[in-house]
Amino acid sequence: MATNNLAFSYIRCSTPKQHREGDTKRRQLELCEKYAHEHGLILDKTGYDDMGVSAFRGKNAEEGGTLLKL
């Protein structure tokens, strides 16, 4: 399988409360799946996420953040 049509999702919400009480993960993953389908991409369901990690000051791109690993 060619990898040039492979897409990865990255899902994030800012606070642990949003993660616990909200629908963020399901909603964002649904949007990722829709985008991949509309653009002929295969969505890798590895599940990269930073749930409850703020991006305002870049914590999601620092040591321990998932975005840094991508």
Give the DSSP E fraction (strand runs of 2 or more residues): 25-35%
Radius of gyration: 13 Å
- Class by SSE composition: alpha+beta
Mean pLDDT: 83
The geometry reads as flat
Give the distance, in angstroms, between the N- and C-terminal Cα atoms: 21 Å
Helix content: 25-40%
- Count of distinct strands: 2
The run of helices and strands is EHHEH
The main sheet comes to: 2 strands, parallel
- Give the spatial strand order of the biggest sheet: 1-2
Helical run tally: 3
What would your notes on this structure say?
This protein is of the alpha+beta class. It contains 3 helices and 2 strands, in the order βααβα. It has helices spanning about 15-20, 25-40, 65-70, and strands at about 5-15, 40-50. A two-stranded parallel sheet has the order 1-2. The longest helix has 15 residues, at about 25-40.
List the helices and strands and how they pair.
Layout: E1 6-13, H1 16-21, H2 24-38, E2 42-51, H3 66-69
Parallel strand pairs: 1-2
List keywords for this structure.
70 residues; alpha+beta; two-stranded parallel ribbon
Quick summary:
The protein has three helices and two strands.
